[in-house]
Design a protein that fits this description.
Layout: H1 2-22, E1 34-37, H2 45-54, E2 60-62, E3 70-77, E4 83-86, E5 89-92, E6 95-102, E7 108-112
Parallel strand pairs: 1-2, 1-3
Antiparallel strand pairs: 3-6, 4-5, 6-7
Length: 113
Amino acid sequence: MRRCLLAVLALLALAFTQTVAQNKSEKPSLAGAKIFIEPMEGDLHPFIAAEIVKKELPVVIVTDRKNAEYILAGSFIKGGDKRNRTASGVTDKDQGSVQLINVKDKTLVWAGR
């Protein structure tokens, strides 16, 4: 489960970095954006919030959904106790996905798994 959380956070950090980099064109920056993290299976949401703060991502985590500009929602599927062997090492079968949704126009801003 920790690997799944770290993978989700890495993807989230990458998405924020890419969005800021693309801001030079037509996409708005997420710097300073107010994000509410939906409760997730396995109680991952407080861990994601803590990692966002720890990684110093340029966003504001809000605790009330009505104050949010974006919603970070996700799901987690426990894959069982078996492990996969890959060329890069042993990984578990747990899977997770997250979506960043713009509250104003209900559009999907970013998704990762």
